[in-house]
Amino acid sequence: MAYYILDNCIECGACMNECPEGAITEGSPYRIDPSLCTECGACAEVCPVEACMPMPEKAEGAK
Ligand code: SF4
Ligand code: SF4
């Protein structure tokens, strides 16, 4: 399990700065490396558009 970033990401970079694992990389949208993510939720807390989600099913359904 890992957090995912949805397509509504506005590429603000807030999550990348907050991630304690360095699991987030720049992109369109930004990406989370599932092998590094510990599901701490820090990215979801700072995301202004709620693009960081813990459920892969939701990530697929929101496209
Ligand atoms: S849940 Fe935590 S470890 Fe995973 S990408 Fe977000 S900030 Fe990084
Ligand atoms: S905080 Fe949200 S909108 Fe900003 S880069 Fe991360 S996922 Fe995208």
Q: Notable features of this structure?
A:
63 residues, alpha+beta, Alpha-Beta Plaits, two-stranded antiparallel sheet, 3 helices, 25% helix, binds iron/sulfur cluster
Characterise this structure.
The chain has about 60 residues and is α+β, with helices and mostly antiparallel strands. The protein has one domain (about 5-55): Alpha-Beta Plaits (2-Layer Sandwich), CATH 3.30.70. It is about 25% helix and about 15% strand. The strands form two sheets. It has a two-stranded antiparallel sheet. A two-stranded antiparallel sheet has the order 2-3. β2 (about 25) and β3 form a beta hairpin. The structure holds iron/sulfur cluster (2 copies).
CATH class (first level) name: Alpha Beta
Treating each run of at least 4 consecutive H or I residues as one helix, how many helices?
3
User: Per CATH, what is the topology?
Assistant: Alpha-Beta Plaits
Give the rounded overall mean pLDDT.
91
Derived from helix and strand composition plus strand pairing, the structural class reads: alpha+beta
Helix amount? 25-40%
Identify the bound ligands: iron/sulfur cluster
What is the beta-strand fraction? 5-15%
The stretches of 5 or more residues where confidence is low (pLDDT under 50) are none
- CATH architecture label name: 2-Layer Sandwich
Summed up, the domain count is 1
Please tally the β strands and state the result.
4
